[in-house]
Amino acid sequence: MSSSWERGAAAPPGVLPAPCASKVELRLSCRHLLDRDPLTKSDPSVVLLLQSQGQWVQVDRTEVVRSSLHPVFSKVFTLDYYFEEAQKLRFEVYDTHGPSNLGCQDDDFLGGMECTLGQIVAQKKMTRALLLKFGRNAGKSTITVIAEDISGNNGYVELSFRAQKLDDKDLFSKSDPFLELYRVNDDQSEQLVYRTEVVKNNLSPAWEPFKVTLSSLCSGQETRPLKAQWDCVNAKYKQKKRHYKNSGVVILADLKFYRVYSFLDYIMGGCQIHFTVAIDFTASNGDPRNSCSLHYINPFQPNEYLQALVAVGEICQDYDSDKRFSALGFGARIPPKYEVSHDFAINFNPEDDECEGIQGVVEAYQNCLPRVQLYGPTNVAPIISKVARMAAAEEHTGEASQYYILLVLTDGVVTDMADTREAIVRASHLPMSIIIVGVGNADFTDMQTLDGDDGVLRSPRGEPALRDIVQFVPFRELKSASPAALAKCVLAEVPRQVVEYYSHKELPPRGISTHTHEACPQRLGQLGVQPVSVSSTWRSLRHPIFQSPPVPTWTHL
After folding, report:
1. Distances (CA, A) of 302 to 309, 311, 329, 342, 437
2. What is the distance between the alpha carbons of residues 127 and 28, in angstroms, rounded to a whole number?
3. Mean pLDDT in residue range 149-176
4. pTM to 2 decimal places
5. Which pLDDT does position 219 carry in this prediction?
6. From the CB of residue 208, how many other CB atoms can be counted at a distance below 10 Å?
């Protein structure tokens, strides 16, 4: 195994990207709670509810803090976090009169707060006002929620072993040694972690470096003992030879520890998601005044463009602090000269194409329809290139601070396929992902070529994309699904794409020092990894080979 991974190569066994689902801890405190007790102060506790299929379901509750209007709760809520889901939470604060672990009807409601887990994660520390029924403020009462990623174990080690002067066990040739590495479990049983390759006919072998996750190596517990085992002993030598010391020496020649950063690490480090939507205004959509048109505005049922826009946008908006989104159109004749444009602001403000929130994008889209003439062709390369220029400017900052998502909504196969492929390949080098949703019943077979799931996308010149940054989804396959299911499908690949980009650029999350990092091995594949320096004790570790146990046990990892 080589010491570095080439792009597209399989990861070493057991070494996988940090999962997109992460564990998050939420810690709570309140200030200036209402005092409902006539003789003493309130005895507050907080109930956490999660929305599931439109219903609020209680997940957990804190302990009761006696006689306090400014409680800090020791109880920690632990939740699974998914970027592609809108995980709606509700925190309800009560003045508790019954048992501390159970609510009762006599508890007084002191206020509540609703938000998404994504909003908490993006801010890391969020303070909101508590509201009573009908949206009334609960005085000056506030609740503060602090998020912490506890996924842990997102790392791996690269180990390099060699040996010197091993015993010769073969009659007509030299020994063929190999090495086995075990971890010692809590019950003292042993579990094989790695077996090296066999080095033929060599008494001083140098085994190939290998990588193994901290989870596999020691369950993320740095003090867990390890055991190295080899089949190279000579029982007779120690009995017969007076000055016998050992049957050779095994040396841990090198050890490198790599931190594998997750998507959540980058988000909690302050990385913002810049969301842009591009809408197809070509004539193939049909006259918007006709109920058969894909752009028809039905007051009772949003069209497919709006359904996809809202489903994806409502997830992304949690990760953009200013909640302003670029909204572009292509394929229409636009005022005042009614010339065809493949890159225009649907709010008709070329100096500022951003809209206030997802609702602002929806309103701009609805106001745009009667003012443009649907035309063609379906050229998307200009808009991809425009967003890529913004992403390129961000790249020069050298920080993991802004990542761009372009949502393209179209009713047909793009006309400028060659230019689009070229634009995507260039964009694959930038902090950018492209989501294409095909609306209507057109044949989208050719669009699948833009999605790199079936092979590496190449430009017309043959240049391969650095990363797979395109996700194509035909809306009709999810038409009967809920908006949440649509968003989950469309956004599922984004966390991996974010981590891949910052991994390739060797950029850690903001706020993490890189001064102690060693030189990063070339091209680390799909993991967001950064190497961390290790002690000289590990680098020079040597241990003689004895006839039988005790075997070397290391507790420094």
Report:
1. 10, 12, 18, 24, 16
2. 10
3. 77
4. 0.74
5. 66
6. 12
Closest CA to 281 of 290, 299, 293: 293
| H helical segments located in 25-87 | none
The separation between CA 266 and the C-alpha centre of its own chain, rounded to angstroms, equals 8
Residue 107 Ramachandran class (φ > 0 left, ψ -120 to 50 alpha, else beta): beta
220: amino acid identity, one letter? G
| 65 within 8 A of 28, measured Cβ to Cβ | no
Helices 304-316 and 483-491: crossing angle in degrees, nearest 10, is: 70
In this model, does residue 220 exceed pLDDT 70?
no
DSSP string, 224-241: --EEEEES---HHHHHH-
Element (H, E) at 139: strand 137-149
- Look at residue 14 and tell me whether its pLDDT is greater than 80: no
Distance between CA 494 and CA 473 in Å, rounded? 14
Which structural domains are found in the chain, ordered by start? Answer: 22-149 (2.60.40.150), 155-261+536-554 (2.60.40), 271-504 (3.40.50.410)
- State yes or no: cis peptide before 12, omega within 30 of 0: no
Q: Read off the pLDDT of each residue in 75-87 and give the average, rounded to a whole number.
A: 92
Helix (H, G, I), strand (E, B) or coil at 337: coil
Separation CA 452–CA 240 (nearest Å)? 66
CA-based nearest residue to 439, from 333, 546, 311, 267: 311
d(CA 299, CA 310): 16
